[in-house]
Amino acid sequence: MKDYITIATFHNSYQLDLVKSQLQAEDIPFFVRDERILQVDPMESFAYGGAKLQVPPSHLETVRKMLEEAGILSAEHDRIKTLGILQPIDRLAAQMPLIRVFSAETRVFLLLSSLLILLFLVLVFVLI
Asked: Which of helix, strand or coil describes residue 32?
């Protein structure tokens, strides 16, 4: 599981179940990270970035094509593309262990708000 790559994020358990059944039918190994959060409290899954579908690198292209045909993957990529100029900030935040579990929008918000708080604290201590 360590070398598995996250290919898609789900906030809808029905959509995830359909994808899982198709992967099982085609004997493609996969792992769903944070799936229990989606099942227990779907609204809480947004805070954690949803359930993450992970596949081994050897099956990455097959699963990518399957998700694109189903119209699942394009929506995820379009959402990340809308970050625009904030993409470098998201890439930086995705490297941080405690922040990378969240969605792209949440990562950017957490990193920028942390930087603003740090800037405020520095200014306060400099002015005192």
From this structure: strand
